[in-house]
Amino acid sequence: MPDIALRGVRLHYQLDGPTGGTPIVLSNSLSSNLNMWDAQVPALTAAGWRVLRYDNRGHGRSEAAPGPYTLDQLVDDMAALLDVAGFERAHFCGLSLGGMVGQRAGTRHAARLVSLTLCDTAAYMGPPEMWAERMAAVEQGGMAALVDGTINRWFTPAGQARLPETVATIRAAILATSPAGYLGCCAAIRDMDQREAIAGIRLPTHVIVGADDAGTPVSAAEFIHQRIAGSRLTVIPEAAHLANVEQAAAFNAALLGFLETQR
Question: FRET pair for 33, CA 20 to 30 Å: which of 40, 166, 168, 207?
């Protein structure tokens, strides 16, 4: 799993799957790392996809460069990694913050992308006061101040009971997130408003959301679906924010079903 210095920051990434496979890039959520996609990579590589996943700046093993960050910085990091991987064009799948990166990439780097899968995400995440509260909590108490609330937003009670080891791993990743990196990415989300811009996306787009997602609810997914002409919407039952983890089989079926129509 190599690291590379790009655009003034050291980014961590991983490539899996056949060298000549169809390229896809996976982008992680706030306070997670590239391992959040562990349940997707085997299904994708078995179907012949070449998978690039990476830690957004300030997350996982990527450097927490001085913040605050902007969404454009995060999007341009992703585009630079496409060059490192040798991908002239790639499909894109991102969840939460990763889905916000995907929306912006759909307008900023559309020529580099083949399709978008936008998961458990939103075009706007206001009000700014909400982010000020979260950021203040982390400044005062570190990631431990938010971990319980995050887990309860990310998984349903049934999912937490059914997947205790997986939830423990996700919890550890949250606690291991750099507070500086978290704060930098919070600023990017706080300052984001893509409600108008996404109407200009012309790429084939699939919007996926957990039916029980309270953080970026079905209504937020429906808004994106309505704004992007010709997009597809899939609601995953019995899943909260990390639908790809809590209901991996259903998520993988939806993801691969869409991707196979776009090869």
Answer: 207
